[in-house]
Amino acid sequence: MARARTGVRAIGALLAAVLGASLAGCSSTGGKRAEDARKAQTAAGKAAVNTPRWTFAMVTHSGDGDTFWDIVQNGAEQAAVKDNINFLYSHSDEGQQQAQLVQAAIDKKVNGLIVSLAKPDAMKDVIARAEKAGIPVITVNSGSEQSKAYGALTHIGQDETIAGEAVGDELDKRGKKKALCVLHEQGNVGHEQRCAGVKKAFGGQLQNLYVDGTNMPDVQASIEAKLQSDRSIDSVVTLGAPFADAAVQAKRTAESKAEIDTFDLNAKVATALTAGTLGFAVDQQPYLQGYQAVDLLWLYKYNADVLGGGRPVLTGPQIISQKDAAELRIYTERGTR
Amino acid sequence: MSTTAPPATPDRTPDRATDERLLRTSPLRRLMGRPELGSVVGAVAVFIFFSIIADSFLQASSLSTVMYAASTLGIMAVPVALLMIGGEFDLSAGVLVTSSALISSMVSYQMTANVWAGIFVSLLVTLAVGVFNGFMLTRTKLPSFIITLGTFLMLTGLNLGFTKLISGTVSTKSIGDMEGFASAKKVFASELTLGDVTLKVTILWWFVLVALATWILLRTRFGNWIFAVGGGADAARAVGVPVNKTKIGLYMGVAFAAWVSGQHLLFSFDVVQSGEGVGNELTYIIAAVIGGCLITGGYGSAIGSAVGAFIFGMTSKGIVYAEWNPDWFKFFLGAMLLLATLLNAWVRKRAEASK
Question: Where is this protein primarily located (chain A) (predicted)?
């Protein structure tokens, strides 16, 4: 009994110490206060229309805690507030699970569906079922080839091959001769297409390097080993913003001269672009993908409007270099770019 | 067992009054002693919870979606439960499902053979992986955790490596227009539509497997061996139970179910992604544990694994019907696992105390 009481006392003392320390040591830069100041600049939340409160569901192939999809969701939620939409989001990186989640949305009798088609074959039947139930479907991000065949209204996203080619052209423009394409998710068709696109447009040599994206230290070590073993590599292309940072670290430890370039954007990438540690980023504007998907569904429900004329609506690629990065950094910090 | 003892040894006749093995137990008592009782209580609780929270949960169409989700997991949870009763793990079960689908698809496509040929080859190879797991385990005497972890990593690599080598991409090519596809789809991935309710054939497979496993566990000699090797392998060997054969058999059971699940994946989607299935092995184990299997072996049931899978299906889809933020899904899953296991332990203690 006495021992238990000392335990409680010790925990109490510890808590008091933590609280005291956090109150005493205020930071005059960054942190929550700076974030709140930034938040004041974001769009306020109030419906701008008086259409009925429809329910739209978005089901993506995102894994847990994915930064990219977080931005897509932000865009979708912003549009949902404006359009008076009840917005539901769910995701799974297993095709079968994703199909079940779409089925669950159909069971709920939602008024519109937004689906990403990274695993198109797994989604085929369930999307047909949605259309049979009279639910309009818009596809986002991946699946531009299948979208129309499956009967979706429109596809919003970036063509991965075109994006890859844009990177290849940019590498040529910068006079690169030997590039490394870092794939962080083995088995992702879109990633393969990106690297194939780079290879197609790039005049120099391109090698693929597979790394385990769920394990950052491993990503860094793999890139490091590659840069150490091949000194002639003069550019590294990563396929996701978080991996650009790992590549920068790897370059430093391997003492390589390679330029690091990346697909996608985040606050760190924007900062690194401004500082010049990254060459360029190619963005597909995830915020726009989420925002447009909800907005176009609303337009369809309200006015039977369809955008794109039966072709995908492209949100990228947009090459971002040092001069554009400063402005975008503010937007990346609030989670919209 | 004959109840009349041989007259030569009258002193060996068990006395009905004092021998606890021959005591007549009341049906309620017997129910209290079942491994799956705790999970059934849990399942009812989860069901009532989501019925109240999510208004679309009780629709027939929603329940059929829940059943489908439960069945895809349940088919694998049954043999995994049996294996755990036998005191072993299989961490390669998740990727083995993907392997099995990949083999069927690629053999059929590359050989331009009837799809059934690919299915058959896939069955042989998948069973061989099961035999390999069991054989390595019994030969090396290493813990099954290590052996199957090795198999898991090797299969993950083989799935991707072979697919890329043969198909040139990370997913297989479509076999939807080949001979035998339609009939195989009927067997592994057909659905029965009644009004707005779609019942998938996996639910039937699941029920059949549960019934079969329950019969094996409770009514056959092999079932006794499973409990024996899980309870204590050395003691079991001493009384003449073929421990190695039993364990290899159990791994083959897991392989068979992985083959069924893999064919379902292939024939419902017609194309297989090579990187999938990682992490599912833990889900199967969770379903078995929620259903009352002990991690240490020697205790559990097949029906329990089905209830565990059903709880899992209800939770994963119930969160969607309840319109909750999916970020918290894993948290609820973990909390539920703990609660269910605690409930199991409590029910079991009560049951043993009341004997």
Answer: other
Q: Does residue A297 sit in the same domain as residue A153?
A: yes
Tell me: pLDDT of B196 over 80.
Answer: no
Q: Which residue of B has its CA nearest to A70?
A: B327
Residues of chain A with Cβ-Cβ distance to B169 below 8 Å are: 189, 192
Quick: pLDDT tens for A77-86: 999 999 999 9
Residue A98 shares a structural domain with residue A237:
no
pLDDT digits (tens, 9 = 90+) for B232-264: 999 999 999 999 999 999 999 999 999 999 999
Is the pLDDT higher at B258 or at B176? Answer: B258
Lowest-pLDDT choice from A20-24, A176-180, B334-338: A20-24
Most confident of A145-149, A271-275, B79-83, B198-202: B79-83
Answer yes or no: do A90 and A179 share one domain. no
When pLDDT is averaged across residues B101-109 and rounded to a whole number, the result is 95
**Nearest-CB residue to B65 (from A103, A185, A189):** A103
Q: Is residue A250 part of a domain?
A: yes
Residues A256 and A165 in one domain: yes
In a domain? residue A194: yes
Identify whether A320 is part of a domain. Answer: no
User: Which among B268, B273, B320 is the nearest to A187, CB-wise?
Assistant: B273
Smallest CA–CA distance from B197 into chain A, residue: A107
| pLDDT-derived band at B6, boundaries 50, 70, 90 | very low
Size of interface A-B (CB pairs under 8 A): 85
Do the chains contact at B317 and A95, CB–CB below 8 Å? no
Architecture of domain B36-347: Orthogonal Bundle (1.10)
Domain count, chain A: 3
Mean pLDDT of B105-133: 96
Residue A318: inside a domain, yes or no?
A: no
- A213 with A291, same domain: the answer is no
Q: What are the structural domain ranges in chain B? A: 36-347
Share of residues in chain B with pLDDT > 90 (%)? 59
Q: What is the CATH number of the domain that holds A170?
A: 3.40.50.2300
Range of the domain at A202: 160-283
What secondary structure, in 3-state letters, does chain B show? Answer: CCCCCCCCCHHHCCCCCCCHHHCCCCHHHHHHCCCCHHHHHHHHHHHHHHHHHCCCCCCHHHHHHHHHHHHHHHHHHHHHHHHHHCCCCCCCHHHHHHHHHHHHHHHHHHHCCCHHHHHHHHHHHHHHHHHHHHHHHHHHCCCHHHHHHHHHHHHHHHHHHHHHHHHCCCECCCCCCCCCHHHHHHHHHCEEEECCEEEEHHHHHHHHHHHHHHHHHHHCHHHHHHHHHHHCHHHHHHCCCCHHHHHHHHHHHHHHHHHHHHHHHHHHHCCCECCCCCCHHHHHHHHHHHCCCCCCCCCCCHHHHHHHHHHHHHHHHHHHHCCCCHHHHHHHHHHHHHHHHHHHHHHHHHHHHCC
State the pLDDT at residue A31.
78
